[in-house]
TrEMBL record:
Organism of derivation: Weizmannia acidilactici
The organism's place on the tree of life at top rank: Bacteria
Pfam families documented for this protein: YhfH
Official protein name in the record: YhfH family protein
Alphabetical list of InterPro entries matching this protein: YhfH-like
C-alpha cells in the first residue's frame, strides 16, 4: 500500500541544525540549514 503524499510529509523527521543538532523550525520558502542561534554566531 502506498502512503499518501500528505502522510509522507507528516512522518518526516524534523530538520536538524548540522552545527548544534537542535531541531530547526521550518518555514515556507526558507532554505536555511543552520538554526537561528548558530547563524547569529556566524554574523559576529
Amino acid at each position: 500500500m502506498m502512503m499518501s503524499p500528505v502522510e509522507f510529509f507528516k512522518t518526516l523527521p524534523a530538520k536538524q541544525c548540522p552545527e548544534c543538532g537542535q531541531p530547526i523550525e521550518e518555514q515556507a520558502e526558507s532554505y536555511m540549514m543552520e538554526c537561528e542561534h548558530c547563524l547569529s554566531k556566524k554574523e559576529e
